[in-house]
Design goal:
This protein is an alpha/beta fold. It has helices spanning about 15-30, 80-90, 110-120, 160-170; strands at about 5-10, 35, 45, 55, 55-60, 70, 95-100, 120-125, 140, 155-160.
């Protein structure tokens, strides 16, 4: 059965580890798996905080017909057209698993996530806890003056609940 899955969560929820584990699982079942990242990122591997690391390819415009399973990490950085290509890939028994963030460090939804939410067959949250109070985290707080949307330094982000995030982000949600 063809299906388009989206797994989202805050920083540190284990999304990359899940993507790597799924890749191994499908490869053990002799399926042709493509592990990919959005073209906008200049990275050729996926690594997780747990130490897992696996080579990945930039998402091609045309996914080969020989691929059974597409797994995409950092899916929040996908373009609308890349999401449409993934949606179109999910036919004839082929499925896609995308892993990414819902929102950026300011609480704004990412373009890729927005279109995946609109087009995916299955949307599942990977829960994580607030670094401060241990309630469920829903925001990614950035401990940095760098205000660029794309910043892949995982060490500057904290998963926070709404209460802790709004206390740290004084200019938001007032």
């Amino acid at each position: 059965m063809s299906k388009f899955y989206f797994f989202f969560g805050t920083m540190g929820a284990g999304k990359s580890a899940y993507a790597i584990n799924k890749t191994y699982e499908f490869r053990e079942r002799n399926l042709k798996v493509m592990l990919a990242l959005p073209k906008s990122l200049d990275v050729k591997f996926i690594d997780s905080r747990s130490g897992l690391k696996l080579d990945a390819t930039p998402l091609p415009e045309h996914i080969p017909d020989t691929v059974n399973i597409l797994i995409v990490d950092e899916a929040q950085f996908l373009s609308k057209n890349e999401v449409i290509n993934i949606r179109n890939f999910c036919t004839n028994g082929r499925s896609a698993f995308c892993y990414g963030l819902r929102t950026d460090f300011q609480g704004n939804i990412f373009e890729g996530s927005k279109y995946i939410f609109a087009m995916a067959d299955s949307i599942r949250e990977i829960p994580s806890m607030c670094k401060i109070c241990r309630k469920k985290s829903v925001f990614n707080f950035r401990n940095s003056e760098n205000k660029n949307t794309i910043c892949l330094d995982k060490n500057i982000y904290e998963p926070l609940c709404f209460d802790c995030f709004s206390k740290k982000q004084r200019y938001l949600f007032k």
